[in-house]
Amino acid sequence: MNRTAIQGTGLEKRYGKRQVLRGMDIAIPEGAITAILGPNVDLPADSWRSAFLAA
Which InterPro entries does this chain map to (predicted)? Predict the structure, then answer.
């Protein structure tokens, strides 16, 4: 049985006035490694910013 180690509902993130995350729901089971990827607005168009969560 997988238990949820990290759970979030309606997550939001801003960098100054720029909203980069809006209304994200996530549930990460124990033992999972999860990456959240998105464009990095400060770098060229083919650059991405990432966040890794280990539960």
Answer: P-loop_NTPase (IPR027417)
SS3 readout for 2-55: CCEEEEEEEEEEEECCEEEEEEEEEEEECCCEEEEEEECCCCCCCCEEEEEEEC
Task: Note whether 26 and 43 are within 8 A (CB).
Answer: no
Q: What's the pLDDT tens digit per position in 9-47? A: 999 888 788 888 889 899 999 988 887 776 665 666 555
For the chain, give every domain's residue range.
4-54
